[in-house]
Structures are given as structure tokens and as C-alpha cells.
Amino acid sequence: MPRPIGTIGETKFKILSIIYLNELRGIMTYGYDIWRILKERFHIYLDPGDLRNVYRHLRDLERFGLISRGKPQTVEAAPKRQTYLLTDKGKVLKGRYARYVDILERKTGNS
User: Fold this and answer.
1) Which of 17, 26, 70, 75 has the fewest other C-beta atoms within 10 Å?
2) pTM of the model
3) Fold type of domain 10-108
């Protein structure tokens, strides 16, 4: 049964955990990076065509007020990368995505 529109599912919590942990490490987060981490660490979005789904989730999270757009990063010989940051409202939900932060920390050996 589909989840009601406007609710936050597990993939969105995983995305919030990626942004949270990157912010703690001083790393700017952008869409392709999120897709790569979802693929490598959580074993989802294995098809490059699914990258668009990450951006759909990011738009939803922004609409919910949980993330905001940061300053675009310029990378040599590549298009600008839109970065994303947690809002205070997104940080308040940490208890809901803390288990994913723990998974990311274990897999990177930073526990």
C-alpha cells in the first residue's frame, strides 16, 4: 500500500542521514554524491537512471522544510553542483534517522 503523500519514508531518512553526517565532517552534499552513497552504502538506486529519483526526494525534503539549498559548488571541467544543507527542522528529526547515521559511520570505519 502506498505511503500517504507528504510523509517521510526510509529513503528520505537515509538522505537526511547522509547530509547530516557530511555536515559533521565539513563536506558539502550534492545530488550525485547522495545517489552514490545510497547505492554503495545502502545498496539502493543501482540504476544510473534512478538519479532523478534522488532529486525528487530532495525537492520533497526542501518542500517539507527539512533541507535548504546551499551555495552551488564549481568543479573544474564539470557543471556546477547544487549543494544541500539541513535546516533546524531537519536536525530536530535526527532521532528518526540516527540509525542510518550509525550505519554510515560503521561502514566508513568512523564509529
Assistant:
1) 26
2) 0.87
3) Arc Repressor Mutant, subunit A (1.10.10)
